[in-house]
Design brief:
Elements (H helix, E strand, L loop, with lengths): L1 H8 L15 H16 L10 H11 L11 E5 L6 H14 L5 E4 H11 L19 E6 L6 E3 L2 E3 L1 H16 L3 E5 L3 H8 L1 H10 E5 L7
Parallel strand pairs: 1-6, 1-7, 2-3, 3-6
Antiparallel strand pairs: 4-5
Protein name: ATPase
Length: about 220
């Protein structure tokens, strides 16, 4: 990570929540590319298929004006292998270098955790995990988790429940949620109900990644 640290040290002004805060984008681009290269071990490529989305996400996470609404979360949808998860893990690492990171959680692991312990507080109010309260986070592979999960006979559609609560936090506090999924809108309604489907456009920037698999 030496190269990442060297580039980070050249950035003087912090990122704030104010979109009008102008920053040195060139320095941040260098840092992002170093982080992406380090995380992917050199396999991450920006090309004609993804460069517009990568740049939109880059501006979004730095709170700069662009095509995405920084008040909303992110909903990245598309076929398997189009790079949705990779993008979110890279941006997670990138923002961590700026002390503004978020974690990525795999939905199937969350449901397994619920079945074992019956506790979802980490993904909701963060009680017992951090004094910061609810935090931005990413849910990876939404729709691939088992439904329902069962804890001592109590069945729960875990991700539906989490989204219900985080929607109210988004309304009250502007809490952002990020999602990667292979589901189409009709699949979302079938698995989670029309409540979740109808609130996607309200709560999220909807982004589609299409094309051939990068795997």
């Amino acid at each position: 990570m030496k190269g990442v640290l060297e580039v980070r040290q050249t950035i003087q002004r912090p990122v704030t929540d104010m979109p009008e805060n102008k920053i040195d984008l060139i320095a941040y681009k260098r840092l992002f590319l170093r982080v992406a290269d380090h995380y992917s071990k050199g396999t991450f490529v920006i090309d004609e298929r993804n460069k517009a989305i990568v740049y939109s996400l880059f501006l979004y996470f730095l709170k700069q004006p662009g095509s995405l609404d920084i008040r909303k979360g992110l909903w990245l949808a598309g076929p398997v292998g189009t790079g949705k998860s990779t993008l979110m893990y890279i941006f997670s690492r990138f923002m961590q270098t700026l002390q503004r990171g978020f974690r990525v959680y795999v939905c199937s692991r969350i449901t397994t955790e619920y079945a074992m312990h019956g506790d979802l507080s980490r993904y909701l109010d963060n009680a017992g995990w951090s004094s910061l309260g609810p935090v931005d986070m990413c849910f990876d592979e939404f729709g691939r988790e088992p439904i329902p999960a069962k804890y001592f006979g109590n069945e729960l559609n875990v991700m539906q429940h989490i989204f219900h609560i985080r929607y109210s936090y988004w309304q009250q506090y502007g809490l952002r949620t990020y999602v990667t999924t292979n589901l189409y809108p009709n699949d979302v309604e079938r698995k989670y109900g029309d409540y979740i489907r109808d609130r996607r456009g309200e709560m999220f920037n909807l982004i589609e990644l299409n094309g051939e698999s990068r795997r």
